[in-house]
Amino acid sequence: MSDTTAEPPTPTPSTQAPSPRTAAPAATPMTRREVEDTFDLDALYTPEERMIRDAVREYVQSELAPHAGEWWREGIFPEHLPRAFGEMGMLGVAIPEAYGGAGATATAYGLVNREVEAADSGLRSFVSVQSSLVMWPILTYGSEDLKKAWLPRLATGEAIGCFGLTEPDAGSDPGAMTTRCKRVGDDWVIRGTKRWITSGTRADVAIIWARDEDSGRVLGFVVETDREGFRAEDIKTKASMRLSVTSELHLDDVAVPDANRLDVVGLKGALSCLSQARFGIAFGVLGAGFATLDEAMHYLEDRPSFGEPLTGKQLVQAKLADMWSDLTKGSLLAYRLGRLKDEGAITPTHISMAKRDNVRAALQAARHARDLLGGNGITTEYGAMRHMSNLETVSTYEGADAVHTLILGRALTGRAAF
Ligand code: TGC
Question: Could you give the C-alpha distances from 102 to 89, 98, 141, 251, 344, in angstroms and in order?
């Protein structure tokens, strides 16, 4: 039996003096490639997907990323970009080649979004609205004449498109739209206001959703923006997405021929387009998130504080590790999302989960980066604050975080709680 009353042994004093604090050896941080693809997803992409991604990465990093801060600060979306994007094959990546697209996989389209958003979410907004919200509905619901008239020009960037669903008083609940259409002879006459419309004042063509006064059903139309009664103006008070053009559209009894009506009836037409755009966002935001992680890693390694680089501090590493881990899980989710879409097995629930959670991961990464960069983090010389501010918009548009949460809740429980 042991003697529980015995005194604990007296520790033997060390004969060695405590080692003086020595300078930390040179650090060998992971490369950007290792950080951004820790689970080697690269090996799972096709050679064509890798080729498209790498070409866009090179273009974005050399031609867009160095200027994004200045364009954002000045509130400029440079006029030459649509044509340049077209030349790079970045518009309509998954649209068939017969209509001017690249005919690539949905995964390739997602990867393009990711590369573009590494520079700025506003640039990705242009690409995804043009591809997912304008080209996709024309391809899917448009007549052959509409496809031939618009898709090749939208693919080259010669024509610009926008998507009018949201209204000043109808965002999360698009069914509450007040824009109306009425059949008059061979035409439809459309009246209403749309708001928060990317590229609205630049657009040559608008996809407009309106409720039929007679049937009460929601219909979609391809509306040329030079039609009488169509007017657009920019929203100039944005503290986010500043290098993206965001507009309000006014349709004052705009007449369009029945041939411009999309072949889909009900809100599902518009929601199916949003599914395409939300898919791209789930990939895109990872680009912004990883850009803020990369920036923070470089900044902190070069910045000593209390005698050593900030990357050697525990609280800093905790944030970096969370950013890396969350964005990496987002990449795995996006990869699977892409393949489900390529296989035709994707559902709106998959997309809602990926859009919601990947935006959360990217936004949290940007917030951490902003914090880690200290005072410099609030300037536009660094990307953290700009990305953070943009991602606040991305969290709200194309289905607010709360809407996607409730879509997931409805899928889980079978009860709609909107
Ligand atoms: P609900 O009953 O759920 O559905 C009505 C019909 O639509 C179908 N559906 C979908 N189809 C394809 N993809 C989806 N994601 C779909 N979601 C629903 C559904 O099957 C049904 O079809 P059917 O045949 O039975 O008629 O409709 P609800 O009114 O209850 O909708 C619920 C809710 C909240 C999920 C939906 O309204 C929603 O997603 N709200 C958010 C809307 C949104 O994202 N708005 C922001 C868009 S961003 C913007 O407009 C700016 S333009 C982009 C830019 O310029 O940057």
Answer: 6, 9, 19, 33, 19
Architecture of domain 268-413: Up-down Bundle (1.20)
Which amino acid, 249? Answer: L
Q: Same CATH fold, 268-413 and 162-266?
A: no
Q: Is 282 helix (H, G, I), strand (E, B) or coil?
A: helix
CA distance 283 to 278: 9
Active site annotation includes 70: no
Nearest CA to ligand 1 atom 50: 166
Predicted TM-score (pTM) of this structure:
0.94
**Nearest partner of 116 among 51, 199, 63, 60, judged by Cα:** 60
How far is residue 98's CA from residue 107's CA, in Å, rounded to a whole number? 20
Q: Are 334 and 267 in contact (CB under 8 A)?
A: no
Q: How far apart are CA 92 and CA 135, in angstroms?
A: 7
CA 198, CA 130: separation in Å to the nearest integer? Answer: 9
Compute the distance from residue 407 Cα to the ligand 1 centre, in Å.
10
Whether domain 162-266 has CATH 2.40.110.10: yes
Structure tokens at 149: 């008239």
Q: Which atom of ligand 1 is nearest to the CA of 173?
A: 37
Domain boundaries, the chain: 41-160, 162-266, 268-413
The rounded radius of gyration (Å) of the Cα atoms in the chain is 25
Catalytic residue among 115, 117, 392, 398: 398
The C-alpha torsion from 268 through 269 and 270 to 273, rounded to 10°, is: 110
| Segment-wise mean pLDDT, segments of 10 residues, the chain, 418 residues | 39 41 70 95 98 98 98 98 98 98 98 98 98 98 98 98 98 97 98 98 98 98 98 98 98 98 98 98 98 97 92 96 98 98 98 98 98 97 98 98 98 98
> Is residue 274 within 6 Å of ligand 1 at its C-beta?
yes
Fold of 41-160: Butyryl-Coa Dehydrogenase, subunit A; domain 1 (1.10.540)
Q: Which atom of ligand 1 is nearest to the CA of 403?
A: 34
Question: Would you say the CB of residue 75 lies under 6 angstroms from ligand 1?
Answer: no
User: Which of 47, 244, 239 minimizes the C-alpha distance to 162?
Assistant: 244
